[in-house]
Structures are given as structure tokens and as C-alpha cells.
Amino acid sequence: MLDKIVYFLHVVRTGSFSDAAKQYGISASAGSRWIIELEDNMGVSLLKRSTRKVVPTQAGERLFDRFCHVNTEIDDILTEIKNLGNDDRGVIRIASTPLFAKNFLSQIVGEYLRKYPHISFRIFETAYDVDHIDEVDFSIRANAIYQGYLEKDCLLVKRSLLQYPLKACCSPSYIEQFSCPETPEDLKKHNCLYASTLVGGNKWVFEQDGEFTAVDIAQTVEVEDSEFLKTVALTGAGIAYLPINLIKKELDDGRLVPILDNYGNSQFEFSLYFRPRKQMPIRCVNFKEFLIKRVKEISLETE
């Protein structure tokens, strides 16, 4: 019964029998049979099935609400017992924005595996928030931070890893062809390149003398990859708003030039998110501390 109820929790979270079965390590047909047996045992229908998604009935919602807390307690108890062995083994699952994965995570994972060869990693590169945080141990996201910024409600624990100033920039050839914007409002008339998940989307925020201006920029290219945006900007096709560390070399050699330099900019932030838990697996505790420490060290090394 407990196995069937826990599988039911996965179905509700994912909205899919097959996705839940994959997480739980059983076949979709076995999972479907478990739900039928669970409903027969309880004498009520727990799920509404459609061609697109599986959603809980009123009874299913009640079972989910009551039992998901119990399941968390069980997980904490089992983790506490496992941690008594102080053994760095098992799988660490991480969802990371591609920019962080390339510049930091790949090196950190490699270093960690040399120290702890019995650890395995599953890395999911995605610019978007993970819908079901239960699918991963850690999520690393990027945001644009500015005065008055309100992060959307989140039940996860957040640790800020790094912050860099954002800089609006373009190639000299773009200025020759389209002129240089003098104020943030001028950006509405220019070709602007943006990533909705990386730097606040199509709303760019600038500061001057304590006054903040939020501009809905003209949307020319949208792609969730800041390296792609930098390359497009280098061709002379538009203005990008990118982390200063990503474009430092291009600014130094003149291939990109800063614009609106008399305005202050937003900050680009990498943040680590994880579930609040009484007992985090020892492998995750150790890796979390190693990750936070090495991100700061690598950042200083590359300055």
C-alpha cells in the first residue's frame, strides 16, 4: 500500500503515469495497475484520466495533501539513518542554467568526482525553472536583480552564489549603422537581443541619480542562451544586455562597446535552490558546501 501511495504522489506531481513510473523505477503498465488496485482498496476514484493530463479527484487531492507530508517525514527518517554511516555515495541530481553549467559546474563536478569517486551525477541543462523540484536535489538559476525586484513566491531555500553587473553593449558597426541610444527609452527604437530566463526578459532596468527606469525593449531576438546573444551582438545585428564577465574580453579588445555608460545597471545573479529538509543526504550536504566554496574561488581566479 505504501509503495502504491508514494507512486500516486509522483503521478499527481508530474500529471503523467509514464513520467511517475520512470521516477519510481517501474513500468507504466505496472504503475497503472497499482493505481487501479489502490482505488479498489479505498473504494474511491483518485485520479481523472484524460488524453493530455492526469489530475486528482477530490478524494485524490485529500490523499495527496495528507500523505505528502508523511512521505517527507519518512524520507527524512531514512536519510537520518543513512547519514549515520557518513558515506559519500549515491546520485546527486542537478538542474542548471547552461551558462553556469559551462563556466562553473562542469569543472566543479570533475573536481568532486576525483575526491569522491563513488558519487554519480545527473545534470539537466535548462534555462527554465524545474517544475517539480522533487526530481532534482539542486536547481541553479539565473536572474536579473535590481532595486525593487521581487522574486516570485518560492518554498525553496535560496543561496546566492555570484552576482555580476549587467552591461548593455553592441558592436561598433551597429552604432555606425543605427546610431547610439542616449537614454534607456531610446532602446525601444533599436534592435535588442534578450533571454527571458536570464536577464529579466524584455524589461531592462537602469539607474541614474537614484532614479530607476524600466524599459520594455524592442524585441528583435529572443533565445535562452547568453553566448548566442553575444555572438549575434558581435555581428552588428543588435544590442545585448549581458553579464560583464561574459563580455569582458570583447569589451577590452573593442569588438563590443558599452552603451548607456552613464547609467547604473541591474545585477546578474546565479542562485542555488533546494528543498527545505530536516535531513539532507550527507552526499548533498558535502557537495553543496563544496559547490559554494569553489564557485567563489573560480570566480576570483578568472577575474
3D structure, described in words:
By secondary structure, the protein is α/β, with parallel strands linked by helices. 42% of the residues lie in helices and 26% in strands. The chain contains nine helices and 14 strands. The chain has helices at residues 2-14, 17-24, 28-42, 58-83, 98-115, 172-178, 226-234, 244-252, 282-302; strands spanning 47-49, 54-56, 90-96, 119-125, 138-145, 157-170, 192-194, 203-208, 211-216, 219-222, 239-243, 257-258, 264-265, 267-274. Strands 3, 4, 5, 6, 7, 10, 11, 12 and 14 form a nine-stranded mixed beta sheet that branches. Helix 5 (98-115) links the parallel strand 3 (90-96) and strand 4. Helix 1 packs across helix 2, helix 2 packs across helix 3 (28-42) and helix 5 (98-115) packs across helix 9. The longest helix is centred in the first third of the chain and has 26 residues, at 58-83. It starts with a helix and ends with a helix. The mean pLDDT is 83.
> Quick one: how many beta strands?
14
The dominant shape is: elongated
Uncertain segments of ≥5 residues (pLDDT<50)?
Answer: none
How far apart the termini lie comes to 56 Å
DSSP strand content? 25-35%
Helix content: 40-55%
Q: Using only CA atoms, what is the Rg?
A: 24 Å
Summarize the biggest pleated sheet: 9 strands, mixed
Mean pLDDT: 83
Order of helices and strands: HHHEEHEHEEEHEEEEHEHEEEH
User: In terms of structural class, how would the helical and strand content be classed?
Assistant: alpha/beta
Counting DSSP H or I runs of 4 or more residues, the number of helices is 9
